[in-house]
Amino acid sequence: MTDSASPDSAETIRLSYSPPTADPETASFTTFLAKRHGGPVDVGDEWNEFVNVGCGRTMDVRFVVEAVTGGVELTTATDVELVADDASKFDQEG
Question: What's the pTM?
Fold first, then answer.
């Protein structure tokens, strides 16, 4: 993975996350995701990560690639949009 845009760099990647009570929306966390999962990504890819939820606590959070635009590779130059998964959908999955 490169730290800057390449011809194959995605402009934007949209990730849903669950459980929806997690709050991973920080610039440092999206940079971490780009470095950890950088390279080619496809809609439907799933990643499990620990997210800091405060006071030294972590939560296991599932991220799913919902959309990739403008290229195929996740880099640190890619804009990462995080959206909470629908809580009712999460409850139905179990």
Answer: 0.81
Domain range 12-86, its CATH number among 3.10.330.10, 2.40.50.180, 3.40.50.1110, 3.90.180.10: 3.10.330.10
Cα–Cα distance measured from residue 57 to residue 14, given in angstroms and rounded to the nearest whole number: 26
- Other Cβ atoms less than 10 A from the Cβ of 47: the count is 15
pLDDT tens for each residue of 50-75: 888 778 888 999 999 999 999 999 99
